[in-house]
Amino acid sequence: MPKLWNDTIEAHRREVRDAILDTTAALVGTQGLRAVTMSQIAEQTGIGRATLYKYFPDVDAILRAWHEREITAHLRQLADIRDRTDEPGQRLDAVLHAYALIAHQTRRHHDPELVTFLHRDEHLAHAQRQLHDLVRQLLAEGAETGDLRADVAPDELASYCLHALTAASNLPTQAAVRRLVTVTLAGLRP
C-alpha cells in the first residue's frame, strides 16, 4: 500500500480512538462510572458497536486507555515546563507548581469512584516512577548548585515533595495551591 494511504488509515484510527476515549470520559463525567455502556459510547461517538469492539473490549479498557493518555500528556507537560529554563531552582519551582495545579484540577473534576478505579492500574505506578525521577533529578541539580539542601538525599526529598503536593487535590482554590507549593519549596532550601 502507498505510504499516503497508510498514513491516512492511521490518522483515521487515531481520530476514532480519541473520539471513543473523549466520549467515554464525558459520559462517565455526567452519568457516573457504572452507568455507561458500550452501546451509549458507540451511539455518542457515531460509530457502530462492532467497530467499537474492534478498538476496546469493554468500558473499563476504554477508561484505562483514556487515563493512560491523560497521564502521558501530564508527564509531557511537566517535562516541557522543566526544559523551558536552565536554572535548576526555577525549573523545580515551575515543575512543582504545574504538578500541584494538575493534582488540584484533576481530582476536583473527577468522580471519586472513577479516581479509585483508575488508580489501581500498573501504568500509574510507572508514571509515578517517571514523575519521581524527574523531580529527584531537579533536586539533585539544585543541591549541586547550592540552591537546595544537600543534607537529605534527593530521592527522599522527591518523595517529600510529591506526597506534600498531593494535598493540592483537596484545596479549594489555585491561590491555596500556590501557597502549598511555596511552603513545600521552603522545606527544600539550605
Write the layout of secondary structure elements.
Elements: H1 3-31, H2 38-45, H3 49-55, H4 59-82, H5 88-109, H6 112-118, H7 122-145, H8 154-165, H9 174-186
Helix pairs in contact: 1-2, 1-4, 2-3, 4-5, 4-7, 5-7, 5-9, 7-8, 8-9
Overview of this protein structure:
- Helices cover 77% and strands 0% of the residues.
- The protein is built from nine helices and no strands.
- The protein has helices at 3-31, 38-45, 49-55, 59-82, 88-109, 112-118, 122-145, 154-165, 174-186.
- By secondary structure, the chain is mostly helical.
- It folds into two domains: 1-57, Orthogonal Bundle (Arc Repressor Mutant, subunit A), CATH 1.10.10; 59-190, Tetracycline Repressor, domain 2.
- Helix 1 (3-31) crosses helix 2 (38-45) and helix 4 (59-82) runs antiparallel to helix 5 (88-109).
- The N and C termini lie far apart (61 Å).
Which architecture of the largest domain per CATH? Answer: Orthogonal Bundle
Q: Radius of gyration from the CA trace?
A: 20 Å
Regarding CATH, which class of the largest domain? Answer: Mainly Alpha
CATH fold naming of the largest domain: Tetracycline Repressor, domain 2
Q: CATH superfamily name of the largest domain? A: Tetracycline Repressor, domain 2
The helicity comes to: over 70%
- Largest sheet data: none
β-sheet strand percentage? under 5%
Element-by-element helix/strand order = HHHHHHHHH
- Contiguous low-pLDDT stretches (5 residues minimum) are none
Distance from N terminus to C terminus (CA atoms, Å) equals 61 Å
Q: Averaging pLDDT over every residue, what do you get? A: 91
Overall strand count: 0
Net shape? elongated
Number of helices: 9
Q: How many domain modules?
A: 2
Question: Structural class, from secondary structure content?
Answer: mainly alpha
